[in-house]
Amino acid sequence: MRRTKLLILVSLFTFFIVNLASAQVKDTVLKTNDTPKIKLAKPLDTAAKKPLTRKDSLKAKYVNPGKVAGRKAVFRSMIIPGWGQLYNIQLLSDGYGTRAGKSQVFQKLYTGGKIAAIYGGATALTLSLMDSRKNYKRFLAEAQYREDNPGKKLDAGLQQYTNQGILDGKSLYKRNSQIVYFSYGLLYAANIIDAYVAARLHFFNIDDNLSFKVMPTVIGSDTMYGFNATPALKLSLTF
What we know:
It contains seven helices and two strands; from the N terminus they run H-H-H-H-H-H-H-E-E. Strand 1 and strand 2 form a beta hairpin. Helix 4 packs antiparallel against helix 7. The radius of gyration is 42 Å and the shape is elongated.
């Protein structure tokens, strides 16, 4: 009797294990068969091999091309004055920005003129600095000689100057030298600012497609006495 019960329990347990295993096999087979039925909208190879255009790259990275160009122009101008302006000419030649496809001869000449102005101004300041330093040393030597030798004069070209005049001349040329140094800084800063602004303007819409439209309209206002309608003109600008 015990053996019969044991055989019955073993049979039931075996039957349960077999059914569980077969259910798992069926589920696995169904999942394997269902997987190939899934279709992609676009093949992965085609999407991966598709070349990214410049516009797609900018949209994907959320990059403002004007800011990038401005930073590059500033960096170049800080290293070598005028390099940022050359970078702006390169932008024109490569056709970047809203001026692409338009005549850019005047713009290139204008930018080249700014480079010439930068180095022309630097040359003029250098010549002025050299002259101021030369005269400062000349008046300084004369002032020191007159102080050490009362009643005597060292430089024949400065004999018409009094002692106070020599001191005033020395101070004048020293101040001129300081002004030249300050002007160097202004020219350097102007070179950087100009390069940045010009680079940003490449990507601003500054074309000639400007139109306007004028039409009559009514301006309404609610007051404690009711609704008041005032005739007016509406101006619409399109650019």
